[in-house]
Amino acid sequence: MQITTPYRLDATGCNGDRGRMAQPAILTLSDIMLTFGGNPLFQGLNLSVNQGERICLVGRNGSGKSTLLKVMAGIMEPDAGDVFLRPGNAVAYMEQDPDLSAYETLGDYASSGLDPSEYYRVEMVMEGVKLNVDQKPDQASGGERRRAALAKLLASDADLMLLDEPTNHLDIEVVAWLEEHLKQTRRAYVIISHDRAFLRNLTRTTLWVDRGVVRRSDKGFEHFEDWRDKTFEEEDLNRHKLDRLIKAEARWAVEGISGRRKRNIGRVGRLDDMKQGRAEQIRRAGTAKMEFDGAPKSGKLVFEATDVTKAFDGKQIVKDFNLRVMRGERIAFVGPNGVGKTTLLKMLLGKVLPDEGKIKIGTNLLVAEFDQNRDALEPNATLWESLTDDKELGVSGKNDQIMVRGRPKHVVAYLKEFLFTDKQARAKIKSLSGGEKARLLLSKLMAKENNLLVLDEPTNDLDVETLDLLQELIDNYEGTVLLVSHDRDFLDRVATTTIAMEGDGKATVYAGGWTDYQAQRMEIMAEKAIVSKKVKGKAGVAATTTKAEGLTFTQENRLKELPDIIARFEAEIAKLEEFMSDPNLFTDHPVKFQKATDALIERHERLADAEEEWMGLEERAGS
Asked: Distance between CA atoms of 107 and 621, rounded to whole angstroms?
């Protein structure tokens, strides 16, 4: 990658932020200016990324987060300013929609750019993200293509990784793997993500993009919302003080200026400056005006599944499944991708018939569906056309009004409620960011009368404020919600019931959200272990148990995770040792030999730490 125009660091080596680090930054941006449509997106932007930093990049949809990441990657040139990459360092960027036309398979793309002797790295990563390496690119889904891009980035030897929504289209199991992988890395990274649990667990620094300004906090995402709210409170207070000062100065100008014109000309000038500064202040964008109301109630019983069994191509989706859903419940479906969550949803809605058993669908249901693939949006249509040419909403493309839950409203006024501008109303959908597409889809969904929401990955690409609002709306919604999501934080905030689909037809109903499901599952496993111990004891067999009676809930989960972590380190060590077994490696490729040696030492250290931690937890559990 080519990054131009070196930038001279000051004596502190950190772009003027004195004392933050002793060595030069990996990447430094200085006096960056970038404009879109005549308005500056960034102006006078300065920031640096240091070795080993774990940074989240947050901000409203459309604030420029992805654009800033592309500037950092060298993919987009700023209008002015310098980007400096420290010599000998490399940056890797996860592409949202990679061009795979030159590759036979996803595996070929993920391993491109690597020396064959270094394939061990990409093999381990592809296994972790569950990438089908033989999948043809033209037959791959958007999620599979993104997994390939993620695998390529993680397998690179870059010093700085730039990840834009890496958890989109990943199931919870793979998100957990990615989270653990990033916890173990010593490389620096910058992450954009809607997944609050993911950001809380991984980041130690926050960059907040807000109205063309990038603010920095040396605390992770866990502290972001408090920091944001405090900043807004101070901003409102300062604006209020400025307004009062302007009024006082204006009153003085009217009442007393005539007799003291020469002596107070400077004060008049300051008043003009204050007025100009107040006029130039950019007010915060409000939250989208989302609401569900006005729809008639459904029947008290929404769905009832009795002894339902379904299989596709010999793959068991559910077996002897039973569920009763009453009006007002929020049902979440979780499980690995491909396990059959969407199929079960379609059976409940009557779109797919079960092989055995029966499903009773309640009365007076008005369904609104949010599709994670955005299939309801035509890329080449404008936002105006998308809203005013919709058979379900009963409007044609010639209208300038739409029916919003039975009431007419001008299309531009309605779009403004979802934070779109007048200009965007005539823009094509393909020009929107992922978050903006999600907001547009929500606007179409909320225009319909509904009492049953079917939300398939609704949180993808949404900013924190919109997520908070969506959660509040669901909390106050009088209808019923069926939710498919891999966002653990959102599940905890919204779900009243969680259906865990674990494969082989097993679908278990748990009360509560994600954390409740995990706790109940651990209790069930512990009870089974106790029973197993008693049975073995009666049979005269040495009894063992996985019951972690002396551990906290977090420690129990850690004890459960550690065997897989240890196995992964052992596999990585084996691959590294195989790679280093080449007797000519040191003489022919000394740099690769040194990197492999460093990696092997690191893996052995981490393996020893993991084994020691496991032994300590096992001992505590046994006591």
From this structure: 42
- Cα 505 to Cα 509: distance, rounded to the nearest angstrom: 13
> Of all residues in the chain, what percent carry a pLDDT higher than 70?
80
Quick one: DSSP state of residue 251?
Answer: H
d(C-alpha 623, C-alpha 611), whole Å: 18
> For residue 473, what are the domain limits?
301-516
Which residue type does 249 have?
A: E
Do 169 and 230 lie in a common domain? no
CA 495-496-498 angle, 5° bins: 70
Whether 235 contacts 69, CB under 8 Å: no
Which stretches of 460-589 are DSSP H helices? 464-476, 488-494, 514-538, 553-580, 585-588
Q: Which 3 state secondary structure label does DSSP give 509? A: strand
Euclidean distance between the first and the last CA atom of the chain, given in angstroms as a whole number: 55
Tell me, yes or no, whether 18 lies in a domain.
Answer: no
- Assess contact for 325 and 331: CB atoms under 8 A: yes
pLDDT tens track for 12-31: 333 334 344 456 899 999 99
The DSSP letter of residue 448 is S
- In three-state secondary structure terms, 554 is helix
Please identify, among 501, 516, 531, the residue that sits at the C-terminal boundary of a domain: 516
Domain presence at residue 15 = no
DSSP string, 266-291: HHHHHHHHHHHHHHH--PPP------
Q: What is the CATH number of the domain that holds 305?
A: 3.40.50.300
Strand 205-210, strand 54-59: pairing: parallel
Asked if residue 99 and residue 36 are part of one domain, the reply reads: yes
E strands within 157-234?
Answer: 160-164, 188-192, 205-210, 213-217
- Res. 522: pLDDT tops 80: no
